Amino acid sequence: MALKTQDVDYRHDDTLLSGFFVYDDAHALPRPTVLIAHAWAGRDDFVCNKARKLAELGYAAFALDMYGKGVLGNGPDENGRLMQPFMADRELLQGRIGAALDTVRALPQVDPSRVAAMGFCFGGLCVLDLARTGADVNGVVSFHGLLTPPGNTSGRKIRGKVLVLHGYDDPMAPPEQVHSLGRELTEAGADWQIHMYGNTVHAFTNPLANDRAFGTVYDLAADRRSWQSMQNFLAEVLN
Hints:
By secondary structure, this protein is of the alpha/beta class.
């Protein structure tokens, strides 16, 4: 195994962005590929490490950038400030992640007919919105994502399969929102699954999450189970 990595600069409107691309050159090219959308802090080591893990599984992976090249939050206040424009303008969010999809499809190592997307927290919302727009992706996976509907995709059909991996006790997206999402996905004609983990809150895949008052706590079992579910899903939609 020899992982090949590169930073890929691309643009959305006037914003310069930088994705992290990785693949194992021991496998034949082009490869089935997974976009990875970051949490509210920006394109950090967490998502780049997830990209490497996916490459070890035989996929190419692209950790996308929602904020701008080199832009990272340094704590909850700044993270919230970076995320808020996209929460307030979901067309902006959808255009930004759509630019990442267009970029990765054009890479020579990528099989453009086999592309999925996954995201964590804010990134979970991003990939769900990608599906909601009717984008031509094979599937999307949300890990402890935000679930608020965008308000501009009613009536559109979802083409890619959807997997939502969620903590039952997540204060940022409680069970009522999960049930609403299920109805929304059904109305959009999606092939969908929702896995809920008991006694589990937000950010359960992040070993650094340890703020019970804020509702973000790492959970080893949910992390392991969700990663296995994701592998099963990707094997179904990409292979």
